[in-house]
Amino acid sequence: MNKDLELPDGTYGAISPSDSDTMTLWWVHRGKMKTWPPKQRWAPYPPQAPQHLTYAERRAWRNSWYGMTYWPWKQAVIDAIAADLEAAAARFDEHVPADERPVIPVPGRKPKPDKVRADEIQAAFMHDHRGMSVDAVADEMKIPRTTAWRRIQNGRLLLTKVSDAIERISGKSALSIAADHFSSAPDRDGAR
Asked: Quick one: which of 2, 28, 111, 160 has the most CB atoms within 10 Å?
């Protein structure tokens, strides 16, 4: 039951085999079939196991339920998608607005939304120039401490890359350009 590995990467919609009124949405990436939106469960839930069963019996009962109910259900979804990939992709597009669709990663590169980059620069600035501790940055940005630390590190790297690029292009450091800009008095037209 690994036919989902044969589906090409993409986003798909398929009618639920157990409820013809429900459209199930899927994102296939690197051979793994994931529900959309994330953490949505389209498949049927397993019923409560009978209370009188031992641990081994309960495990066997659960495996039996998955074998008789869940895996055939999922295989039916996969078969419906594989039968007409273009129609399944169109069904997904019909049910999910463009701005809510998953970001399809570029092979070999992790996607980095602009907001994360701005947050990384902000975190590095707060830590390095305002003297805030990692904990204070985490509190201010309302993120976990480890995320704050990671964003500070990434922000420092980004700021270094930008400063290096400015220096290569202009022959001056970013700090000296800023100092020149802000230390000169504006003329009558407001230009510096």
From this structure: 28
